[in-house]
Amino acid sequence: MSDKPTDGLPPPQLYWAILTIILGITLAVLDSAIANVALPTIASDLHARPAASIWIVNAYQLAITISLLPLASLGDIIGYRRIYRIGLAIFTLASLACALSDSLVTLTLARVLQGFGAAGIMSVNTALLRVIYPQRMLGRGVGINALVVAVGAAAGPTVAAGILAIAHWQWLFAVNVPIGLAAFLIAMRALPKSQRSPHAFDWQSALYNALTFGLLISAIDSFGHGQRLPAVGLELLLAVAMGVLLVRRQLKLPLPLLPVDLLRIPMFALSISTSVCSFAAQMLAYVSLPFYLQDTLGRSYVATGLLMTPWPIAIVVVAPIAGRLVERHHPGTLGAIGLLLFGTGLGLLAMLPHQPSSLDIIWRMALCGVGFGLFQSPNNYAMITSAPKHRSGGASGMLGTARLVGQTTGAALVALVFNLAPVHGTTITLVVAACFALAASGVSALRMRVPRQANAAGGGPA
Question: Is residue 202 within 8 Å of 253, Cβ to Cβ?
Answer without folding.
Answer: yes
